[in-house]
Structure formats: C-alpha cells, structure tokens
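Ligand-bound model needed. 9D3.
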Amino acid sequence: MRFDIVTIFPAMIEHALTVGVVGRAIAQGALQVRVRDLRDFTSDRHHVVDDVPYGGGPGMVLKPEPLLRAVDAVEGEGGVRPVVILASPQGSRLTQEVVRRLSRLSHLVVLCGRYEGVDERVRSRVDEEISIGDYVLSGGELPALVIVDAVARLVPGVVGDQQSVAEESFSRGLLDFPQYTRPAAIGDVGGAMAVPEVLLSGNHGEIRRWRKRAALVRTLDRRPDLLATAVLDDEEREILRGLLAERKEG
Ligand code: 9D3
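Prediction:
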C-alpha cells in the first residue's frame, strides 16, 4: 500500500515514520510512504503557501494552487487514481470501520491543513474529509500520522502477528483485558501488588474465561456504549448476562 502525505512540515512526519511497526513495514517494503513538502508545489520566488482570507478575519488560509498541483503531481505518477483525503476538523470521524475500508485501497493521498483552514476550492479534488476527533489541533500532520498508523496495521505483512490484529479490542468492540508480566508480586514498591492467581495457574480454559470476564467488566464500566455493537461469542454473552444480573441486584 502507498501513501502520499502533503504538508508544510515534512519534518514533523518523517521521523515518526522511521520507528515502530510502521517504520519496519516501510523498511521491508510492505508499505510505501512519501512525504511531500507543499512548498515544492509553489511557483513564486518565496514559496508562499498561505494568504489572508477573502472577506477578512483572523488567521491565514492555505492557498489552493499548491495543494491542487500536489494532487496533480501524485496522480500524474501513474497507477490507479489515488483516493484523496483532506485531514480537517470538518471531516467525518475516523473510526475503526473507516480504517478498515481505507485499508482495502492501494493508494491514499493525505492533505494536511494548517492555519485557519484550506481554500474551499481544494475540496473539488478531495474524495473524503476526515477528522480524528472533537478537539482542536494545530494542523493535519498528527491526524495524517494517525490515519497512516491505523490503516497500515491492517495491511497484510505490516503487523507480524495478524491474529493479534484480528483479536484487537476495537475490531471486536470490547476493551482489552488487564495484562501482567513478571514479577508475580511487587513487595517493596507500591504496597502488595499481586498478579491474579488464575493467570499463574496454567489452566488455559480458566484463564480464557477470566480474561473474557475482565474485558466485559471493563467495557461495562468504562465504555458501555461499545456493547451495543460488540461481537460476542456464546460464552461472552453468558458472562455478560451474569454481570448485568449482578449489577441489577446491586
Ligand atoms: C474548527 C476550528 N476552526 C475554527 C475557526 C479553526 C481550526 C482549528 C484547527 C482550523 C484548523 C485547525 C487545524 N486542525 C486540523 O487541521 C485537523 C484536525 C483537528 O484539529 N482535530 C481533529 N482532527 C483534525 S484533522 C485536521
């Protein structure tokens, strides 16, 4: 899968793409990400990318031509026409469902906005406008990285253990169960903190059931909204019935 990211701050994005799962996937060729400097698509001596808004008001607006030229340049490089995404606070919310749909595409272009916004005419070349959530960021660079990270994980060969991707909480709609590693007990720091006995028992049937229950308890406590659409197996449905009955009784 290929991504092109168009930004006025390439450095903000480039280092992030060298580390972790995404960094390894790029190094191995499973993923191709090109970061493009918007200033390279200007035609004036000073490489100006923004201007004051028509009608007045505070802040600056990203000029249309550099962004349109950047899209033209990427499209001109051949292959199937890429899907062009504008990272924008006005976009529809990025969810795991959207991430799954994007992961089936072969080539995405992500345009990063900045300042007060982007000239409206750029939207004529945009297929999809995406926001990562209802909070104000300074620009689309972090959202672009979020999109690449979330989508790349679903591309075959990017995450080594595809089973862990399939079992991930948000793909099934539950929060994760609690995890522990050694030591089994912490005596001197933080009081007596012991790992739940069942996890040390070696009884894999019991461990599986404990984890299902713990994931359901957490989801019920913290994100009960997720249960409306969660995909549960028979055992999980039974455990959930029990938990709901317990809570009704008080
Ligand atoms: C909606 C706020 N706008 C009112 C004048 C100003 C504005 C705020 C933040 C204009 C641009 C930005 C920069 N943010 C993004 O480009 C952005 C973003 C975000 O701020 N939150 C969540 N997702 C995204 S995707 C791109």
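The two ends are 51 Å apart (CA to CA).
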